[in-house]
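Hello forum,

I keep getting stuck at the same step: I have a sequence, I want structure tokens, and every attempt I make locally crashes halfway through. Rather than fight my setup again tonight, could one of you with a working pipeline run this one for me? It's a single chain of 517 residues.
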Amino acid sequence: MGERGAGCSRAERRRGARPSRLTVVGRTAATGVCCLSLAGGATSWFTYQSLANGASTSDALSRTKKNAPPKLDNSVNLLLIGLDSRKDMDGNDLPPEVVSRQLHAGASSDVGGYNTNSLILMHIPPGGKAKAQAVSIPRDDYVTTYNGDGSPQGKHKIKEAYGIAKSAAEPGLKAKGVQGADLERQSREAGREATLATVQKFLDVHIDHFAEVNLIGFYDVAKAIGPIDVCLKKATKDPAMKGQGSGADFHKGINTLATPAQALAFVRQRHNLANGDFDRTHRQQAFITSAMIALKKKGIVSDLGKVRGLLDVVKKDIVIDNQWNLLDFAQQAPNLTGGNVVYNTLPVKALTDVNVPGAGKQSVNEVDVEQVRKTVKALFSNKESDSSPKPSATPGKPAAAIVDVYNASGVTGGAEATAKSLAAAGYTKGAVGTRAKGGKTQVLYGTGADKAAEQIASKLNAGTAKASSAVPAGHVQVIIGTGFTAPAADPAPAPSSGPRLVFQGPEVDGGGIPCVD
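Reply #2:
Ran it on my machine without issues. Output:
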């Protein structure tokens, strides 16, 4: 029982000396934050083996198989676990200068306990034709939690299943003489088993693989990737006071997260946000997308040395299941490349207070289990008509971008009318201004906004959208020229004959830098 070093970090992805595709599917998680899907690049069998050795693996998944729902097809369900622990894998306290001073995550090693404050289940359809679907499970969902053997723990917040099982396992392990680092590792195995069993029971889905990272893992990976651009719909501040705040201080629009502390502040913030934890979940999803874009922009996905350097950092912080053959998995996951992932947050029925024995009154998420299961089943159905990418010129859901509109048409109010029309269509409204009159209508875009630019250019009959280094990342710039007519509103969508999917807030599309609250 316990972790063993063999397996791999979350590696896999494309191209090397031979045409094998290795995709690095990773995740970085921290105090309520999960970050997944770090992308990969060209590597060979030798490199794969060298990176695989030394990563920690777990038997937890195999020990929950007996009570798991059946596997229905060749798709892959991957659970990403963000453990809110201030201890390393051997049970040692994380460096206080990192936890308290840089990450504003509290000074005590007991803060956070062993809660799984971030749970993301990614569904990767077979064949690479349909989009991958990822769902975040709100950490305070009040559900029946289970131990790894299928026995119920009672009703708790879903994040608590891990810590409850870990604490329950420790006395028996101590009685057998297990202590120190071995006690920490083996009791954590009980926590993983409980988390896997609980998620499988709650969602009624089979989990094929899992990956777990704690606070220091997020710090190390954010440091290894370097600056990451993210986008916010409005300015926000969350002062760090005695470990209670995140230290967030961001302006509206594109922000560059230059340090691990800023990255953690972005994904940890829940105070001073309209929707609290749910907005924080959307931050997690947006960070994942932006991290993938940053890896590609910096050439990490195609540079063998950079890939090895990143994985050397990652593998010491991650635990994955020992059944994960990443070379085989890579063949099933080509659609994870190119940002072909959509993130949603599972629905909550109501926020309510319950009296918990020994803990008093607690605020929890009341959930409709059947509604949640139906939603997951519909999302994971692998129907190309529902989830495959549509041609960019086809009207449909707008890609994420901030749209700045400038009037060079000479028509008074033309820029404002166009900006309002595009905002009504679902794009984020940015700057509105004027330019010297003349020229044809142009659509320019910055890094990560190519899909939105193509959609807008089609909508405005403005020809081909063009990349421009003068346009900020995540922005589309529309310069309306002479003879321009503001676009008509899109017709209302036709009623769907399929199930009505309900989520907690808007989806986050991995196709560009998304703007979130």
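Confidence is low (pLDDT under 50) at residues 1-48, 384-395, 489-497. If your local run keeps crashing, start a new thread with the error log.
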